[in-house]
Each structure stands twice: as structure tokens, then as C-alpha cells.
Design a protein that fits this description.
Number of domains of chain A: 2
CATH topology of the largest domain in chain A: TIM Barrel
Number of domains of chain B: 1
Order of helices and strands of chain B: EEHEHEHHEHHEHEHHEE
Number of helices of chain B: 9
Structural class of chain A: alpha/beta
Mean pLDDT of chain B: 96
CATH architecture of chain B: Alpha-Beta Barrel
Largest sheet of chain B: 9 strands, mixed
CATH architecture of the largest domain in chain A: Alpha-Beta Barrel
CATH superfamily of the largest domain in chain A: Aldolase class I
Oligomer: heterodimer
Strand order of the largest sheet of chain A: 2-1-3-4-5-6-7
Strand content of chain B: 15-25%
CATH superfamily of chain B: Aldolase class I
Strand content of chain A: 15-25%
Low-confidence stretches of chain B: none
Distance between the termini of chain B: 20 Å
Radius of gyration of chain B: 17 Å
Radius of gyration of chain A: 22 Å
CATH topology of chain B: TIM Barrel
Bound molecules: iron/sulfur cluster
CATH class of the largest domain in chain A: Alpha Beta
CATH class of chain B: Alpha Beta
Chain lengths: 431, 238
């Protein structure tokens, strides 16, 4: 029988094949907190294709007093349903949410979802630990900085919590044993924030300035993951892997021995326009098998609205440099950007396909809570589904019918590109 | 947009409306001539990702030298081999998997209607529709089995007799897992007062089923202009 004073279940509802790194950080930090030494933690990483009733069954089988769920636009509908079922089955359990889908609209979430008790806003590690201490001690959750919770029949928000100054104070989920490295689904984070400020993205806005984990910490994580049994590939979730030439060189030096032994990095996100022959060879030294990049759009107005740079020649040169090193490039385009016409979207598809990058991916704009597009949607004549995943419904340039036509046409064009017999030098991966 | 250089593989063997253009058996071109064209295309390819070829003119599966043509094309560096068929040969045991393993990634099937009664009557061949549907299923199964990304597309030759069957034909392609359908509208059909109604219904049937419908041979404004765009470009290779 458990002797824990409080049993906490952390629930990730992830894309199939993924595990929640965010929950790994939350748990590693909370477990290391001496105030929570008598708290028992368990993590469930489940897939978005799982039935909510089955997810609730798995949660309830743990008999937790606290259920913490990480929420993105992709899993929000499922999470809300799980919360409803868990609440009905175990009325006294505290149901806590956190993540980019709920943090920026915490009060609205609590008003719309009576089964949710509190929302952790922003960067979660310290806030979550403090919230657990409050729950354990019977204190008021709504007094914990960074928390929005119910109080006196209403909803109250404590002030925002400042960003964590020294990221090394957050224990590594891997080095602490919370997350076991698994081949292909292990992701490392080496810094938080993003140097860019794309209007549709929470990353650039949510975390503000760049904060880095120390080189010693990153090196220790790389060493641990790369030497873990069965791990032949892993990746980084950093928004820009080639952040600076100096940092890339340091990563290459550290990763090269592992790359030489066959360890590969898959789909690291890069700023492709700054990749030349030299940095492409550094990526190869790192063992990078594939990179993911924009341009998201090539339309002048959308680029301007979303604060994105796009240099056609530099982009093409970056793709060519990666390909010359045998690195596959996944180019991403978004349909439904404010300012884009159908012709802009088709021009983007034609441009990326013409570069023969390896993979072209299309997605439809999701207007995410807290982003600049969310806040200025009315001004931009941007209409989207208020319910998650907040897909765009119409823009000032394209109505609903045209957007749906464009999705079907674009996806068919991309399928035609993808169906090929790859020949050496045109699609080969490193592995 | 991906371009495919068209290379004639022969004439005939594809379904056509017997009330307009009676179909004729496939008369194949010599394999040596076809391969010579492929070589020329592969050596001079400058049209973006590729080289890519589309074997046109007849049912490619009726060409006795098809396996050799495909394997030589791949050996010459061709990345995308596209061929057109009635679909029926793909149902024959081993044909779909054989074509796939040889290097075919793009198959285009011709239908005149969306059900067996009308398709069979229009092309004059009993069981032709069922064979085409089975062939398309065979192609999808082979693709799944070998885990290769492949493409299934459809073509509907639109004449005065097939026009009313366009929406059902698009739906049949959607059920078969096609990603796009091309409507090649004849001059006669283009003058039909009901043209925009049927073509528009076909295009909309495609969009709601996630399958792209491109239209050729109609006046601007007959369908939303996006539908004038195909998912690939057929390039004249001569
Ligand atoms: S989309 Fe990428 S580059 Fe832009 S702000 Fe977000 S993380 Fe940064």
C-alpha cells in the first residue's frame, strides 16, 4: 500500500509515438522538491488516438488525488472529456491543466469547463510544484503565482510568475530517471524561447528572451542519451538548432563521436537561410539525418503580417547545401495565413517542390491562444474555430470554400511529389 | 507542380465512350523506341524534380514489354513513372505488386461512370467497372504492403454521354483511394447546357471527399478557377 501523502498522476495525451517532455520536466522538478518528498508521482503517456473513456480508466486505476494534464490544441478536446469523466468518477480529485492551449486563456477555460480546478499558466515547473504544496497544505491555489483557480464560486488569477532565471535549476528528466531514453522518441531541450517572433506561434511570444541550459548540462544529457541501450536516434526540440555558428560548432564537436558510431539526429528545426556549405557539414558532423524548416509562406503580405523573413535565393541555397551532405529537408507550408491568396499558397508549393527538398509538408493555420494572430484576429479579418484546435475558417483573402479546395489541391500536389523512386543524391538519408 | 514527360507507349486499350469514339485494342510501340525516348528525356531533364515520365496513348499494361520499359527507365534515373490503364490489369494476381516493385509509383485509371451498369454500357465491356475497382484496390493493397508512397489518380473523358456520370465517377475514385481526378471535357460536352451543373457537382464531390478534381476543356468561369489547375503537368517530350 502506498504511503504517499498525495498521489499525483501526470497525464500526457500525445501524438502517437511521442512522450511529453513538458511533463518530464514538471515531474523531475517536483520530485526533487523537498517539500514534496512525501508525494507519489506517476506519469501516463498516452496517444491522441486513444478513446477518452479508456484514458480515464487508466487514470482512475492509479487512484490519484491530483490529476495533471498537459494541454495543446491537438489534445484539448480529449483532455476536456477525460476531465469530465474523471470528475464524475472521482469527485474529490483535483484536476489541474497546463500548457500552451490553456495558459493564455486560463480564466475562460475554467469558466467553460467546470470539471477543471486550476490552470498553471506559462512556464510550469516552479508553479506546479508550488501548487502541489498548496494543495497538500490546504492553502488557496489561486494565491500561487502563475495559477488561475476557483475561489468563492468564481475564478481568480494570481499574478504571473517570472521566467526561471537559471534553467539548470530544473532537473533533467533524463538524468533524473523520470524519462527513459527511447530510440526515436527522445527529445532534448537546450534553450527556451526563440529568436523569431512569428505571429502565429506561441514560442516566440510566450517565453520571450532566450534562456539556455549550460553546456555542461546539455553535454551530460547528450552523453546519457547517446549511450543509452537501444538508442540509435534522438532529436532536439529547440526552435532553431543552428542558432549561432559558435553553438553549432560546439554541438558538432560534442555529437561527432556519436555520429561516427551511427547515432542519428532526426528532424531538427533549422533556420535554413543561414545554412551554407560549412554549416551543412557541421550538421552532418552532428549526425543530422533530416532537418525541418519553413518557409511557411512565400506571400509578401503574409510574411510581413507574421514578421517572417524569406529570401528565396538563400532558402534554395540552404536546401541545396543540406542535400549535398545527404541531409533530407522537410519544408513546411501553412495554408490560410492572413494576407495570403490562393496564388501565394500555390506559389509556395511550387517553389518548395522545385527545390526537391525530400519532403514537403502542408498544414492549415491554427490560430493559437496567446499568439499575436489570436489577439489581432478581428483586425486581420481572420476567422477561426474558437474550439480547439482552432483551425482557420476564413481569411480576408480566402473564404471557407477556397481554403478547403486549396487544402485538397495542395495535399494532392505534395503526394505527387512524394511518390518517387529515390535515386542516390536525391533522397538518400544518412542512415 | 511536378512535370511528367509524356512518352507514347502505344495506342488503344483504354475505355472510351463507344457512342463517340469506339475503343480499339492496344497497338504497342516498339519497346526499343519507347526506351530510346525515355533515355532522351532522362538525359536532358531540366524540369525540376525528376526525371519523370508518363506512359501515354494506351493501356500500358497491354504492352508486352512494360516490365522491361519500367526497369530500364528506373535504371536511367527516372524517379517517377506514371502509367495509364483501364485498371483491370491491376486486379490480375501479381500485376500491381510487380509494377510497384519495378518502379511504377503513379497509376491513372480511366472511368466513364461511377457504377458498373453505366461504365460497362458506355465502354461496351462487361464487368469492366468491377475489374477497374478491383484493380485500384489491388494497387492500394500493393502500396500498403510494400510501404511505398504511391499515387492513384483518375481520368474521366467527358463527352455528352458521360457528363451526367461525372459526380458518381469522382465518388467512385474517392472510394478507391485516388487523390485526384482529371476531367477531360470534349468540345461537344463543353457546349452542353448542363455542363457547369455536372462538372461543378463533380468538383464539389471531390472536395468534400478530399480528392482533387481538375477540369480541362471548359470556358473560364464554368468552375471555380482553382479547378483549372491539375496536380501534375504533362509535358510534351518530343
Ligand atoms: S514558428 Fe518557429 S521560428 Fe517562429 S517563433 Fe515559433 S518557434 Fe520561433
Amino acid at each position: 500500500m502506498s504511503t504517499a501523502a498525495l498521489k499525483v498522476a501526470l497525464i500526457g495525451v500525445n501524438s502517437p509515438g511521442y512522450r511529453s517532455l513538458a511533463l518530464g520536466f514538471l515531474r523531475a522538478h517536483a520530485q526533487a522538491d523537498p517539500r514534496l518528498s512525501d508525494v507519489g508521482f506517476q506519469t501516463l503517456d498516452l496517444d491522441t488516438d486513444a478513446d477518452p473513456w479508456w484514458i480515464a480508466w487508466r487514470v482512475l486505476a492509479l487512484d490519484p488525488e491530483v490529476v495533471a494534464l498537459s494541454v495543446t490544441c491537438w489534445n484539448a478536446r480529449i483532455v476536456y472529456e477525460v476531465a469530465r469523466i474523471v470528475r464524475a468518477a472521482k469527485p474529490n480529485a483535483s484536476i489541474l491543466l497546463g500548457g500552451p492551449e490553456v495558459g493564455p486563456i486560463a480564466e475562460d477555460v475554467l469558466r467553460a469547463h467546470p470539471n477543471v480546478d486550476a490552470v498553471v499558466r506559462g512556464e510550469g515547473e516552479i508553479t506546479f510544484a508550488d501548487l502541489l504544496v498548496a494543495l497538500k497544505d490546504g492553502a488557496e491555489p489561486a494565491d500561487v503565482p502563475g495559477v488561475t483557480a476557483r475561489r468563492d464560486g468564481g475564478v481568480a488569477s494570481a499574478p504571473d510568475r517570472p521566467l526561471i532565471e537559471d534553467l539548470d535549476n530544473v532537473p533533467s528528466p533524463y538524468l533524473s530517471g523520470v524519462l527513459e531514453p527511447v530510440d526515436g522518441s527522445t527529445y532534448l531541450e537546450t534553450y527556451r524561447g526563440c529568436p523569431h517572433r512569428c505571429a502565429y506561434c506561441f514560442e516566440g511570444k510566450g517565453y520571450g528572451r532566450l534562456r539556455r541550459f549550460s553546456e555542461a548540462r546539455v553535454a551530460a544529457e547528450i552523453d546519457f542519451v547517446a549511450t543509452s541501450e537501444g538508442v540509435r536516434s534522438f532529436s532536439f526540440i529547440d526552435p532553431v538548432f543552428n542558432l549561432t555558428p559558435k553553438r553549432l560548432k560546439w554541438l558538432a564537436e560534442h555529437l561527432e563521436p556519436y555520429a561516427a558510431s551511427g547515432i542519428r539526429l532526426h528532424t531538427v528545426e533549422v533556420d535554413i537561410e543561414s545554412i551554407d556549405e560549412r554549416s551543412a557539414s557541421e550538421l552532418k558532423r552532428c549526425g543530422v539525418a533530416s532537418v525541418e524548416t519553413g518557409p511557411q509562406t512565400v506571400g509578401t503580405r503574409a510574411l510581413q503580417t507574421c514578421h517572417r523573413d524569406f529570401d528565396r535565393a538563400a532558402f534554395a541555397a540552404g536546401v541545396a547545401a543540406c542535400r549535398s551532405q545527404g541531409i533530407r529537408v522537410e519544408t513546411d507550408l501553412i495554408i490560410g495565413m492572413p494576407g495570403d491568396t490562393a496564388a501565394d499558397v500555390l506559389s509556395g508549393i511550387d517553389f518548395t517542390i522545385s527545390l526537391d527538398p525530400g519532403t514537403v509538408q502542408l498544414s492549415t493555420l491554427h490560430v493559437l491562444p496567446g499568439t499575436e494572430l489570436w489577439n489581432s484576429a478581428a483586425e486581420l479579418d481572420l476567422r477561426f474555430d474558437p474550439e480547439p484546435p482552432h483551425e482557420v475558417i476564413a481569411t480576408g483573402e480566402m473564404d471557407y470554400l477556397e481554403l478547403r479546395r486549396l487544402e485538397v489541391l495542395g495535399n494532392a500536389m505534395v503526394s505527387v511529389y512524394a511518390a518517387r523512386v529515390p535515386h542516390i543524391g536525391t533522397g538518400g538519408a544518412l542512415a | 507542380m511536378i512535370g511528367f514527360a509524356t512518352i507514347e507507349v502505344g495506342r488503344g486499350g483504354l475505355p472510351s465512350c463507344r457512342l463517340c469514339v469506339p475503343s480499339v485494342p492496344m497497338a504497342p510501340r516498339s519497346s526499343a523506341d519507347v526506351v530510346a525516348d525515355v533515355r532522351r528525356v532522362a538525359e536532358s531533364w531540366a524540369a525540376g524534380p525528376g526525371p519523370n515520365i508518363a506512359l501515354v496513348g494506351g493501356d500500358a499494361f497491354a504492352h508486352p514489354g512494360l516490365p522491361s520499359i519500367v526497369s530500364q527507365s528506373v535504371a536511367l534515373g527516372v524517379e517517377r513513372v506514371r502509367l495509364q490503364t483501364s485498371g483491370a490489369p491491376l486486379a490480375a494476381h501479381g500485376n500491381a505488386l510487380g509494377a510497384l516493385r519495378a518502379g511504377v509509383r503513379h497509376v491513372d485509371v480511366v472511368l466513364l461512370a461511377g457504377d458498373s451498369g453505366n461504365h460497362d454500357a458506355l465502354c461496351g465491356t462487361e464487368q469492366a467497372f468491377t475489374a477497374a475497382v478491383n484493380g485500384m484496390a489491388g494497387w492500394r493493397e500493393a502500396s500498403d504492403e510494400d510501404r511505398h508512397p504511391t499515387v492513384l489518380t483518375g481520368t474521366v473523358p467527358v463527352c455528352r454521354h458521360t457528363l451526367v456520370h461525372v459526380p458518381a465517377a469522382v465518388a467512385a475514385f474517392a472510394r478507391a483511394g485516388a487523390i485526384a481526378v482529371h476531367l477531360a471535357v470534349s468540345a461537344h460536352a463543353a457546349a452542353d447546357p448542363a455542363l457547369s451543373e455536372w462538372i461543378g457537382a463533380g468538383a464539389d464531390t471531390g472536395v468534400v471527399n478530399g480528392i482533387w478534381v481538375s477540369v480541362e476543356g471548359v470556358r473560364p468561369g464554368t468552375v471555380p478557377s482553382l479547378h483549372e489547375r491539375s496536380v501534375y503537368a504533362l509535358l510534351n517530350s518530343t
